[in-house]
Amino acid sequence: MSINNKNKANPSEILLEELADNGVLRLTLNDAKRRNALSEEMMTKLATALTRASENEDIRTIILAGNGPAFCSGHDLKQMSAARKNNDDGHAYFSKVFSSCSDLMQMIVNHPKPIIAEVSGVAAAAGCQLVACCDLAVAGESARFITPGVNIGLFCSTPMVALSRNLSNKAAMEMLLTGEMVNSSKAERIGLINRVVEDKNVTHNTEELASLIASKSSMVLETGKKAFYNQKDMPLSEAYEYASKVMVENMLKNDASEGINAFIEKRHPKWQDK
Question: Quick check: 256 and 274 in contact, CB under 8 A?
Answer without folding.
Answer: no
